[in-house]
Design brief:
Blueprint lengths: L10 E4 L3 H13 L11 E4 L2 H10 L4 E5 L1 E2 L2 E2 L1 H10 L5 E5 L4 H9 L4 E4 L8 H28 L3 E6 L4 E4 L1 H7 L3 H4 L4 H5 L6 H12 L4 E8 L5 E12 L5 E10 L1 H15 L9 H18 L2 E10 L1 H8 L1 H18 L6 E6 L2 E9 L2 H16 L2 E3 L2 E3 L2 E9 L6 H17 L5 E3 L3 H6 L1
Parallel strand pairs: 1-2, 1-3, 3-6, 6-7, 18-19
Antiparallel strand pairs: 4-5, 8-9, 8-12, 10-11, 11-12, 13-15, 13-18, 14-15, 16-17
Length: 440
């Protein structure tokens, strides 16, 4: 290898035999290795102590270490040098062709093991140096990647092709409660399955990643303590040079707080802040859906519009705080009057409420609910030291007789409520078209 192309490195040779050291230096130069500013890349030391001092003065790129030195011998020599230079590749030089010694040296921190008598066969030393440097660079990159993945906030899991866990970062442990020692060799599915997803969900996931495609989605996972959390998950297949999948890398983010915040915002946008009943926006949405279903199934629904009687005098006399508490109690009693979960009790604002009865069988069903509401609100309300008696006027519009769209039903129920007011309050009235009233 020419001087212009040879790699520039510093090699620390710790060898007590001057002849062997000279041969090593020659072989290293013949292999094309050079040092910055010099042709000779070798720094020579005859004892372990001299080698440690040279390493302390300037860190070498690689160490060639004889296992038999005047001040140290055997595996202890490797251990001592590895302790001084933990990130520098060490190649052991020994006169013994001993496989057990080679294995022990590698476990002690060496990168490679060479018998001195074989150093000059087919450039064995040059190849060993190059391979050790490449392995060291790869190991350094792996340590860097692992450090980076260990510091990210998202959970990272690496599995083999059968989904057995090979590595997980600290964020995964913090997120799930499982220590790394508890998950190695086990599958995420058996550890984290919350039971919230059916078989088809996981079949679709596996179909995607086994086709070498990235899967992304949300799911509910289970922690070690049995509690569940919402997670955003991305699983990426990792293929080898042959194109076959070798590993999967999963990146998981706990989105429970984000989803809870979104749900709170959504709830606040669709519910009355005082009574926590659905507001006009949510009522309108549910009315659209219920109407669409009623059209498909040729069913009947009823809309009841309620306005409290004599509420303003309560507010003016006892104050808004008492008025607010009264409205909250009214909302609670109205919820108890709705016969089914599919029914909706909403507050439009002020002292106006609406009850949507989905899929009633006959008009008399609505009458029963109206009478139940009148009776419930006729009972005195005790708010602090105050005993309050009110009533309500109820207007009722029925689909399809009294309207076939949201706005018309709301308007006609409101009109019917005013007829109830005129009839003396504390009663209900069904909507009657003007033509009906004219002929009455």
């Amino acid at each position: 290898m020419s001087k212009s192309t040879g790699p520039r490195i510093s090699i620390l040779v710790i060898e007590d035999d001057r002849g062997d050291a000279g041969l090593i230096r020659t072989n290293v130069r013949l292999a094309g290795f050079r040092r910055f500013g010099e042709d000779d890349p070798v720094v020579w030391a005859q004892t372990l102590a001299e080698g440690c001092a040279a390493a302390a003065a300037k860190t070498p790129d690689l160490v060639l270490l004889d296992l038999s030195l005047p001040d140290s011998a055997g595996i202890a020599t490797v251990q001592a040098m590895h302790a001084v230079l933990p990130d520098v590749p060490i190649i052991i030089l020994t006169g013994q062709d001993d496989h057990q010694l080679a294995e022990a040296a590698l476990q002690a921190g060496a990168q490679d093991y060479l018998v001195k008598g074989q150093l000059f066969q087919h450039d064995a030393l040059g190849r060993a140096i190059r391979h050790a440097l490449v392995r060291q660079r790869l190991e350094s990159r792996l340590r860097l990647f692992e450090a980076a993945l260990s510091s990210v906030a998202n959970g990272v899991v690496v599995t083999d092709v059968s989904s057995a866990i090979e590595w997980a970062n600290p964020a995964f442990t913090k997120m799930t409660g499982f220590e790394l020692s508890e998950v190695i060799g086990r599958r995420p599915g058996e550890l984290l399955n919350s039971g919230k997803h059916d078989a088809r969900f996981y079949e679709s996931l596996w179909e995607t990643i086994l086709a070498s495609r990235v899967w992304s989605g949300e799911l509910v996972n289970r922690r070690q303590d049995g509690s569940c959390f919402d997670a955003a998950l991305t699983i990426s297949p990792v293929t080898g040079s042959d194109g076959q999948i070798q590993h999967f890398v999963a990146i998981m983010q706990d989105i429970s707080e984000r989803k809870a915040s979104a749900e709170r915002v959504h709830h606040l946008a669709h519910h009355d802040q005082l009574t926590d009943l659905p507001n006009r926006m949510l009522l309108t949405d549910r009315l659209f859906q219920t109407l669409a279903q009623a059209r498909r199934e040729r069913a009947t629904l009823a809309l009841m519009f309620l306005d409290l009687d004599l509420f303003k005098p309560v507010n003016d006399t006892l104050g808004h705080d008492v008025g607010d508490l009264l409205l909250k109690e009214v909302g609670r009693r109205l919820r108890a009057c709705a016969p089914r979960d599919s029914d909706t009790v909403a507050r439009l604002g002020g002292d106006e409420f609406v009850i949507l009865l989905a899929q009633i069988d006959k008009a008399s069903d609505t009458v029963l609910v109206a009478k139940k509401v009148l009776a419930a609100l006729a009972q005195p309300f005790v708010i602090g030291p105050n005993r309050i008696e009110i009533s309500t006027s109820i207007g009722i519009a029925v689909y399809p007789q009294h309207g076939d769209d949201v706005n018309r039903l709301l308007k006609n129920a409101d009109t019917a409520m005013y007829h109830a007011k005129k009839a003396g309050r504390g009663c209900y009235r069904f909507y009657r078209a003007l033509t009906e009233l004219a002929g009455a």
